[in-house]
Amino acid sequence: MKVFVSSPAGVRVYCEVQEGQSWTVFLARHHQTPNENFTRSWQDHKKGFGDPEGEHWLGNENLHTLTGGETRYRLRVEATNLQGEQRYGEWRVFRVAPEDNRYRLTVEQYNSSSTLGDGLNYHNGESFTTVDRDHDTWSAGNCAVHHGGGGWWGWRWGWRWGCGLVNPTGPLHLSDLHQDPWKVMSWVFFIPGDGHWVKLSSVKMMVKS
Ligand SMILES: [Ca+2]
């Protein structure tokens, strides 16, 4: 595996090459000093922020430009828990709608040979929500305010699950103490079929056609 930075369409992106195939990273989270703040405005999430070689969000507009056309894109997620165990998941369909459709998420066709569970399935079809733009289906509040970060959240699973099952943009805490798991970077179904919230030490989300 090797990594490099390229610039299609004039945007600096971080790519990873795995088995000869290049993946464009749109979310990178890991310990760095200082850590990037992911609880930000609609505009920031639209344009993207952070350093492509460090923690960053590529931006919803770039994500839509990349994945919103005729070409089908795949998604790969790599996540590491606080104990250093790394798992990966792949989905064969990943698409982000235009801004006038609130950057709605399509994520389908989970690859069942993945070692990371399909917590994202529960976010399929949701609009993007930030602290200043509440597009989630929770009428009593804003999931970005409640969970931290920005994301495709809903409330359709009732009281038990709240805003969703993954929070890859939540605040990063390497200590396991005193933090509600849904208010930090976390993933339910870290182990396929296991519905516990698992706090994460790093996450990468990437796409390729
Ligand atoms: Ca709401």
From TrEMBL:
Pfam families associated with the record: Fibrinogen_C
Top-level taxonomic group: Eukaryota
SMART domains: FBG
Domain (Fibrinogen C-terminal) ranges: 1-209
Gene Ontology cellular component annotations, sorted alphabetically: extracellular space
PROSITE patterns: FIBRINOGEN_C_2
Signal sequence bounds: none
Name by which UniProt lists this protein: Ficolin-1-like 7
